[in-house]
Amino acid sequence: MEDLFGFVHRRSGTHTVRFQPAGIALRVAAGTLLLDAAREAGLPVAQSCGGFAVCSWCRMQVLEGWENLSPIERPEERLIARQQFAPNERASCQAAVFGDVVVTTTYW
Ligand code: FES
After folding, report:
1. Range of the domain at 96
2. What is the model's pTM?
């Protein structure tokens, strides 16, 4: 299925999320949020808004596979602008995995 932005959602299967610098790799089902993947891998993820794209504490830097994450939607777009995210940063509570990705944070 393809959305308005041309993003092709691969809704089935599993994909690898690699967390750096630890090098931990985890297979997750398509559509898993980066936030949930990190927790499943046993890595801490800061947050205070409950995953509603308000606090920005859950931000992660995407080192590889940016194109394999769900598109940025309006709430995250507003958060990115307000909190001045770097060009490679996503709110992990909003970014779903649809292909292999490599991510990090400033505190791992
Ligand atoms: S948990 Fe608050 S923006 Fe992601």
Report:
1. 14-104
2. 0.89
Cβ 91 under 6 angstroms from ligand 1: yes
- Phi, psi of 9, rounded to the nearest 5 degrees: -85, 120
47: Cβ below 6 Å to ligand 1? yes
Domain total for the chain? 1
Which residue from 58, 69, 103 has its CB within 8 A of the most atoms of ligand 1, so it is best to mutate? Answer: 58
Residue 104 has pLDDT above 50, yes or no: yes
pLDDT digits (tens, 9 = 90+) for 53-82: 999 999 999 999 999 999 999 999 999 999
Instruction: Please tell me the predicted confidence (pLDDT) of residue 12.
Output: 74
DSSP 79: H
One-letter amino acid identity for 50? G
